[in-house]
């Protein structure tokens, strides 16, 4: 049991708490709703209200806590798909193919308005063969119409796919006031203008609002007869004729009616839901029929399932113990349940599909998490739901959401990570962040919206186009596209501040723009947004109330109203550009901004996604100010405002309707999805990108902060065995920093490019977009192109970004004319290498501990998993003694004095600060720091000092080098070094000299360096890096000589790392105006590299080759 001290009575009532949403510090004082996320510590937490108890309240939570058995074993117990499951899957895939051939919609019932009891039973295989029964209509993938949301909406959707509404549907045009009708009848002119201008976007006024999580578990635990009795008791407990009392009694009456209809529908399938379920299969069936009833009644934007895994596991464990089922039968039930989830379909308009592409239904299923007393809630059934991705193949639905916690067993974490690497079908959310607020029995609606199951409900409200709001500040309150005046207060404020037509010759004043944005625009927007939402949800409750879903809540429910913002990173980058550079407006004949120019085009301004507080703090301020303004509004049913940073796929649509921005984004260009940095602006590596997003305050964004993250497989490690542990470390570190949500995609860009050009070849390719998963071929061409432009964190190489801005006093410090020494290969042959070394004398105290040691650094990559064990921060030092033909970082070759060129100057203290900030990512699995180059041994004092700081943080140190220098230099660095990766250019000295561009003597030094380690530093682990060049370094003579040398290095030698030649650095030579040394040499074939690996193995030398 998870909580042996809890009572088991289902009717336990929740304790009444204050109804005011408040923010508390440890002393309990009310404070301003702000938060700063820091590692392992969220300084302030939110306390949700708990409504007054009612006699019919249900308590599933404590039943789970008292009976569930957490599981900390591995996945070996899982069962493969049964033959029946394989037949069902084959039939489903056949239907999917027919649906694609039909243009995306297989069939629609255009005659019968959908209700809980409107359609006869439907089956995938047959009544006898389906393990779990329940469909929206009488045949699989047939869509049904729900006109209570709006007849015009249904009509437009049908006509888009070549259908016409039947007579029963047409009756809703004149005879029924629908949600859509009522909403637009109450919209003010300001609301309509904001909607038309795409300032308020994606509003649920033309589709079901969704985002309501019914507690379907109550059906199985109590039985429907008991639920009806409890609702009747609630009805009787509400006296009088006060408006609120009458409303609540009316709603309960509709809920009771829906429960009775649920029984009728279940009877049609031959399922008895009147009594509690007794077996695992009965329980799963009850959950699904409850959800099916909701799907038949509503087509909400997100019809989340809730949190079923731990509840279901109670019954599976009981059945297994009693010998009435087997593991194969349990998995078969789960697989069939998942198949039914994948078959859900709705009728949607083209406008809806443009916003929410890929035909999503958001049947979000929350998995895992922990109890309030920090015990894992992972069970065998948690594994079983995830295992469906292997038994049935990857798919968008259900939207599998792991509630990640530091209390999860490592086995489970690595199982999840492996599935993400295989399928890109899982999203992760921070249970340690949400659990203190929502308790242990919450679930996720849509993508990132947490709610206590059966206790909270949400009024969903899409989002506002924050970028357009900022442009209104620069255009006197007018829409930058059509020029219509949307905000009169801004018009007056901009005129007073001198912002508008005629200001083109003066840079935009950051202080003025920020003041108007935060103090005028945001409060105005929050008020209009809140008024609009109140209209929408009053109308939805009146015309299209979710009877069945709300019957599975307590009668007194806590209401949350979910607002959203789109374009956060564009706004933050735009404001930062104004603050840290001079930005000038370009205006058209109407005086509206048509573009922007920069006073210093080559100047780099802070950009969100690089862990830079200069811009990250702006993003935090935007979130806090917007939520604070919303929190002041009077909301329908006294709901409490929450805010999301989430766009779904609508970032493309929003961008199309928005003009150019001060950050350099062009008119019509997509925004970044959710809380992501703009595409390819997060240049400091994966960890820096994650760290920026993790700063966004969850207390101000409790509707969720969506982060969609893309990695190549090799970015997680050269070998597949390392990838899952490294992904686990990445997730642990991100959530320890306070990150809320992350979608994980592990994909190759080349595969996506091919899938974009030939979508028919990849019918099952699933990717995560912004808060949900989608089949890639179901995205529009524009959306696929946008996905291809996103940052995809790959294997770390020295950044290209400095090449365009590497100047000082008008000189490029990456070109040879910047230096006082001749750096041609001929001169390097004769040059004393020690003259290049940036070093003090041999005295270990030459640099007192409080005196910074300055290094010449080209760039720093916060995330690398291919340059030593674990996750590492990789520092590329500036300056190299060789001119290798295959060098992929030619810009790091020139030796630069950091005191003459401060652009490359970095202190050991600065590196130490970075390591300390990212230590949560770096400490596991022997991670740490790797110094590369260039050539790290040209700066031994800096290397030694940085490595000492790393050691103090319990991080490992790794030296990536070609072994130049002398014993005095080596002995400075090696005592604080754990790993050495030594690049040997060739075993034949003439070949090595040709490849490296320096003398044979210099190449002998590398071998002496290896022998010095063997003889004097037995604890260092030494690997040899060997670049495979066709016909040069892959000959039998070279491989045999390499093997002999490697064997001679025992016991410090570990392995040879084979590096097939690539052309990743070729474009850098072009940017530098240099000729590429290897001309048109083609990349080394992977199959040929496997042959070399086999040869080394035959010679008794271990080697590794990065897996494709």
Give a nutshell description of this structure.
The protein is α/β, with parallel strands linked by helices. It is built from 37 helices and 34 strands.
Count the beta strands: 34
Task: Give the fraction of residues assigned to helices.
Answer: 25-40%
Query: Count of helices?
Result: 37
Main-sheet strand order equals: 28-26-27-29-30-31-32-33-34
**Major pleated sheet:** 9 strands, mixed
Mean pLDDT: 90
Report the uncertain regions: 3-43, 800-836
Structural shape: globular
Derived from helix and strand composition plus strand pairing, the structural class reads alpha/beta
Q: What is the terminal-to-terminal distance? A: 44 Å
Give an overview of the whole structure.
With 1108 residues, the protein is α/β, with parallel strands linked by helices. 39% of the residues lie in helices and 14% in strands. The chain is built from 37 helices and 34 strands. Helix 5 crosses helix 19, helix 18 packs antiparallel against helix 19 (510-543) and helix 31 packs parallel to helix 32.
Question: What descriptors fit this protein?
Answer:
transferase, rSAM, 6-stranded mixed β-sheet, globular, 1108 residues, 34 strands, 37 helices, 4 iron, 4 sulfur cluster binding, alpha/beta, 9-stranded mixed β-sheet, disordered N terminus
